[in-house]
Amino acid sequence: MYDLLVRNARLLDGSGQPAFKGDIGIEEGRIVAIGDLANTDARHAIDAQGHIASPGFIDSHTHSDLTIALDGRALSSLTQGITTQVMGNCGVSAAPTRDLEPYHGPLDPAMTRDLTCDWTHFDEYFQRLEANGVGTNTATLVGHGNVRVAAMGYDDRPPTTTEMERMKALVGRAMADGALGLSSGLAYAPGPYAELEELVELSKIVGTYGGIYTSHIRNQTESIAEAVGEVIAVGEQASVTAHVSHMQPGSPMLGSTRDLLATIDQKRREGRDISCDAIPYTIGSTTLKSLLPPWALDGGDEALIRRLKDSETREKIKQDTLQHGAESGG
Ligand SMILES: [Zn+2]
């Protein structure tokens, strides 16, 4: 007798073979039989009525980092059939935090205004998630934005030697705590302030743990080829697997995907482990702040507000936003 029997399902088992009709027998939380189980008993039975039963989906790009600490059920993932999610994308992750203040990057702080942040590093964050209960399997990258803010704030400048060492140590700590790799968000302050060398040095740390480098690239319009080239360069110079997140050329580069994919294919033929993904719909979404020129965000939100209050600087921000906003691509 099974603990649970799912009857009359269309089974897609993930092997690539076409769907077939069948039942699933489960004991102690594990699938122990698949096929025609019509004559078996079970403590509980579910009639799938011909709906699809398949292994859970893996969502390799989510931003649940802070919301999952508020509500661990992850219902928005589970109701889509997602049972494993990878967080910490686009340079923003739950940890490390600076002074227990989460780095939001492109995330909307209003969504987590009820959140009390009581962790600095991932081990403390993971303990909190486990104590609350988590609806999906979760994995995370460490955000470059978190690391830079924790080490040197929102300053628009290269790191000093001490700050660079601090960043390396934070990346090492995150990897030791279980992060899968480093993500950068080069369109979200302080991401744009990082130069290639900084990203390479941090990715080398990730490489020593067998981790990967992923990037929300610096530009998705006129300079998208250079921006993809930067990810390839980090992968090559740090000898790590590199991945371009949601490659989606914006106007006037619509249609350039063919060339970009050819570049990536060529690198793969040369033996480089480089890949990309795409958003499966025709729009993107991001924050209003990412439309602003990066210099306006130098020093953080309070510095931005000071600049906006000064009429001359505000006008300059306005002019640059019209230019930069169109380039950022979202
Ligand atoms: Zn992104």
Automatic annotation (TrEMBL):
Sample GO molecular function, one term: hydrolase activity, acting on carbon-nitrogen (but not peptide) bonds, in cyclic amides
Alphabetical list of Pfam families matching this protein = Amidohydro_3
Please provide, in alphabetical order, the Gene Ontology terms of the cellular component aspect for this entry: cytosol
Xref: InterPro entries: Amidohydro_3, Metal-dep_hydrolase_composite, Metal_Hydrolase, Metallo-dep_Hydrolases_sf
Please list the residue ranges annotated as the Amidohydrolase domain. 45-186
Q: This protein is called what? A: Amidohydrolase 3 domain-containing protein
